[in-house]
Design brief:
Layout: H1 2-14, E1 44-53, E2 62-66, H2 73-82, H3 96-103, H4 111-124, E3 136-138, E4 142-145, E5 150-155, E6 171-174, E7 181-184, E8 193-200, E9 209-211, E10 213-215, E11 222-230, E12 248-254, E13 258-270, E14 277-278, E15 283-285, E16 293-297, E17 311-321, E18 337-345, E19 354-356, E20 360-365, E21 367-375, E22 388-392, E23 405-407, E24 414-416, E25 426-427, E26 436-439, E27 442-450, E28 461-469, E29 474-478, E30 481-486, E31 500-506, E32 518-519, H5 520-525, E33 549-554
Parallel strand pairs: 10-20, 21-30
Antiparallel strand pairs: 1-2, 1-3, 1-5, 4-7, 5-6, 8-9, 8-11, 11-17, 12-16, 12-18, 13-14, 13-17, 15-16, 18-19, 18-20, 21-26, 22-25, 22-27, 23-24, 27-28, 28-29, 31-32, 31-33
Helix pairs in contact: 2-4
Length: 557
């Protein structure tokens, strides 16, 4: 009977493979580590729960008593009695053999076995400052146990301040008849990952979709998403069940050039291929963020049927580039950096103990179109002020295709506007400039809407901004700087320095070349003598010159 009891106890104790982790994790920056080195970085301690006698005649544990680390059996029994899962199965006057008789009825990795493991752990570590002494220690992945008995093997690792992103490993194991005996640690680590993505439009140079970089117009709404993946327990284990609660917290940081607009969805998927479910029991801090924020879920285990199958949590929110956004006029990097890291429970013994992942970063690019208006040609000094323009997304330049812009008072540039009011008409300034700040990659059309007096309107101008980008760099091509030249109208008279000038025009007979009435300026231009007496009419010689006819020429319409 005792042999059967011992075997069942062994099965129960082996089920607590990840009961406790006792080291409080460091919280510091350590980029790049994604996989635990459990043999060289992790230390282990063996805590004796039961002791007994093993002989050649009786290879099972007999004469069972409390082990060296159960120094206060009354307190331990009281904790067993208080446990909400298994408390009703124990009495405070039980002996070690009485406890053994109870747990021998349980099955591998069932709720009762896990609850018993948690009680043992909390007895050894009643608070965060507890530091019990194990009967044996090692850090090579194996522990040399000198005496027979049942032991709780605990991950006792500590890490330096610049080392983080860890999970802790521990389990129960039965000592075998051969002593001393080296226990090989069966590593079971639950360590999540997090990734930040940004949605990009399908424009020139980009296929669109979710990725590590995007380009957008200033004030254009677009989405970020945060993806946390909690791995499944190995070998169909129940690693998460040894946590009373399993918490996660997204810490998201936006650069000064990006404004948070609204939280869209928080969803969770339990295991591969399951249907996403909306999560409502989260906390957003601050409640109405403008930039950086924290989103925490106190116990992910309450959000899915079985967290041991793994889970994926996806947070999606909308933001936009603001007037502080870094604007690329040439290729290179950008200051519009955004990042997230995930804090997560990594110590089943202390529910408030959190470690965190490395940061995941994305970049958002936006571009500036510089325009200069000239008269006649692009010679310096020929800059032309007062020309009006609007920007369109289609070559027909219809009202529906207009890209509405608003003028920025601080620097005189124009930026995209997505409100319901009408956009501003752009005007070239005294330097001939009207620059558009914060455009997405794409094809645009610039139409002159107001032409300065005495100049012809320019034809519509096609503008192409092509960008290829990743999380570190953008390469730009196209025409990010444009020159627009207005030619003088044919009806413009350069000699008219005032709005009206009076010129004397001689009325005479029609010339053979078709000229009849010629101005004095015309005569001079043709090498003729300017005279009020026609040389072709001898009868007029000596007569008083007739009064000239005055014709008023207005400025060209």
């Amino acid at each position: 009977m005792m042999k059967k009891v011992i075997k069942k106890l062994l099965a129960a104790l082996l089920a607590v493979a990840m009961v406790c982790a006792m080291a409080i994790p460091a919280f510091a920056y350590n980029p790049g580590e994604t996989k635990e080195d459990l043999n060289t970085k992790h230390d282990y301690g063996a805590f004796q729960i039961f002791e007994g006698v093993i002989s050649k005649d009786n290879p099972t544990l007999s004469d069972v008593n409390w082990g060296r680390n159960i120094t206060e059996p009354d307190i331990f029994l009281a904790k067993l009695k208080e446990d909400p899962t298994i408390g009703g199965k124990f009495e405070t006057d039980f002996t070690a053999q009485d406890v053994l008789a109870v747990i021998s009825k349980w099955h591998d990795s069932d709720d009762n076995s896990i609850a018993f493991a948690r009680v043992v752990c909390h007895y050894l570590y009643p608070d965060a400052n507890a530091n019990p002494t194990p009967v044996a220690t090692d850090h090579t992945g194996g522990i040399n146990i000198p005496k027979s008995g049942y032991y709780l093997i605990v991950d006792t690792s500590t890490f330096s301040d610049d080392d983080f992103y860890h999970a802790y490993n521990s389990f129960f194991l039965l000592n075998v008849p051969q002593t001393p005996y080296v226990v090989l640690v069966n590593h079971k680590v639950v360590k999540p990952t997090v990734e930040k993505e940004v949605y990009d439009n399908n424009d020139i140079g980009s296929t669109g979709g979710w990725g590590s970089s995007a380009d957008h117009a200033i004030n254009e709404p677009f989405q970020f998403r945060l993806i946390a993946k909690l791995p499944a327990s190995e070998n169909n284990g129940r690693a998460y069940d040894y946590y009373k609660e399993y918490a996660v917290c997204f810490t998201d940081t936006l650069s000064d050039g990006i404004t948070f607009d609204k939280l869209d969805t928080v969803e969770i998927t339990n295991g591969d291929g399951s249907t996403p479910q909306v999560i409502n029991n989260y906390t957003l801090d601050p409640n109405n963020p403008q930039s950086s924020f924290k989103l925490s879920i106190d116990d992910v285990k309450t959000c899915v049927p079985d967290l041991n199958k793994g889970a994926t949590i996806t947070v999606t929110y909308t933001a936009h580039l603001n007037e502080k956004a870094y604007v690329n006029t040439v290729g290179g990097g950008t200051d519009n950096k955004n990042s997230v890291y995930l804090e997560y429970s990594n110590n089943p013994r202390i529910s408030t103990s959190l470690d965190h992942t490395p940061e995941s970063e994305v970049r958002v690019y936006t571009y500036q179109l510089n325009n200069t208006k000239y008269r006649d040609d692009d010679t310096p000094g020929n800059e032309l002020a007062g020309a009006g323009f609007r920007l369109y997304s289609g070559k027909d330049c219809t009202k529906e295709q207009e890209i509405k812009l608003k003028k920025t008072i601080t620097d005189g540039t124009y930026s995209p506007y997505f409100g319901t009011d009408a956009g501003d008409e752009m005007f070239s300034d005294e330097h001939g400039q009207f620059n558009v700040k914060g455009l997405d990659a794409g094809t645009y059309y610039l139409r002159e809407t107001k032409t300065p007096d005495d100049y012809n309107a320019c034809a519509d101008k096609e503008i192409v901004i092509s960008a290829t980008h990743d999380v570190n760099h953008v390469s730009l091509s196209g025409n990010l700087s444009t020159t627009i030249i207005n030619k003088q109208s044919r009806r413009h008279y350069p000699a008219l320095h005032r709005r009206h000038r009076h010129y004397p025009v001689l009325c005479g007979r029609r010339r053979p070349d078709g000229c009849g009435h010629r101005s004095a300026g015309h005569q001079e231009a043709h090498g003729e003598q300017v005279s009020s007496i026609s040389p072709r009419n001898p009868e007029q010689r000596g007569r008083k010159a007739p009064a000239p006819i005055l014709i008023t020429l207005g400025s060209s319409p």
